[in-house]
Design goal:
About 25% of the residues lie in helices and about 30% in strands. The chain has 7 helices and 15 strands. The chain has a single domain, classed as Rossmann fold, CATH 3.40.50.720. The structure holds flavin-adenine dinucleotide. It catalyses: a D-alpha-amino acid + O2 + H2O = a 2-oxocarboxylate + H2O2 + NH4(+).
Length: about 325
Amino acid sequence: MRMVADVIVVGAGVVGLTAAVRLQERGARVTVLTADPPERLVSTVAAAVWYPTHTDADPRVLDWATVTYQEFRRQAGDGVPGVLLRRTRMLQRRAGDGLPWWAAAAGDVTVRDGTAPYARELRFVAPLAEMTTYLDWLRQRVVDGGGQVTHRRVDRLDDLFAEAPVVVNAAGLAAGALCGDPTVLPIRGQIVLVANPGLDESVRDEEHPDGTAYVHPRSRDVVLGGSYQPGRADLDPDPELRAGILRRCLALVPELAVAPVLGERIGLRPGREGGPRVEAENRPGGRLVHAYGHGGAGMTLSWGCADEVCALALAGR
Ligand SMILES: Cc1cc2nc3c(=O)[nH]c(=O)nc-3n(C[C@H](O)[C@H](O)[C@H](O)COP(=O)(O)OP(=O)(O)OC[C@H]3O[C@@H](n4cnc5c(N)ncnc54)[C@H](O)[C@@H]3O)c2cc1C
């Protein structure tokens, strides 16, 4: 069969599409395959606020987070659809020594004294992506760059070497089964959407004893969260979780009391023991580049990982 692409990217979530865009910028002919329509992806469910949730203080993660932070700030300045910047107050119950490891990636982070029960608060600007709009924009970029985004389920990654010499495994939660990695696991998340009563500042309490609490105003609604449930894979709304999210978020931002509830969303984060896997593997038919296991930080690490995927995929070209 004639090779019609230089690279096939399996996955049209935020990880696959950002990689596809970077590959095209380097001159590669790219085809993206997706088993699911956009509305079914966890990338669409995501609150999609820059913050390296549940990631380790690993230099690679810091590097990916830094590159992504800078890219989203640039895109916000350029008016890319769906990209917003939010002043953020991160409330901390314990006054640590100095700034957390990820602060080096987040531009200007300042510390203020907190009011009980908070010991202090960190203030910084966080990019946020309204993912329905943003994923549309990414898909369009791939198409405008001469690529294709095709609805097709892949059973075996190695079969794709008949169509392209390089394959990127960006299949999210399904990536582990596709390449035999048993350490991939679902991490269930539930969020509540309410009308925006005029808020423009994000507030988060990652150390709340009843579960994380975050309030992220978008252009038309506000995302309230959250839940982080490793190993739980059902997509049924959990009324107890929803009540807890509303209770914690209203305590954080009392103005939300008048905001009508618009709905809720549930998604399965693609978790992985040891964190994201971004590495290349030489297979008998070609080069396989893995890019999966981003857990609760796929948006936060996306552009940094995309650069690395691109370098691995095109090495030696
Ligand atoms: C409630 C919630 C809130 C979140 N908030 C944030 C946040 O604030 N910040 C942040 O950074 N992250 C957040 N996340 C995490 C984020 O959603 C994920 O890390 C990210 O979306 C993972 O992207 P992905 O591209 O790897 O996976 P996905 O979006 O799942 O995309 C996987 C792609 O692979 C395709 N695929 C799978 N199997 C096959 C196959 N066999 N053949 C072909 N295609 C296949 C799918 O169809 C899809 O196109 C949140 C998640 C949840 C659930």
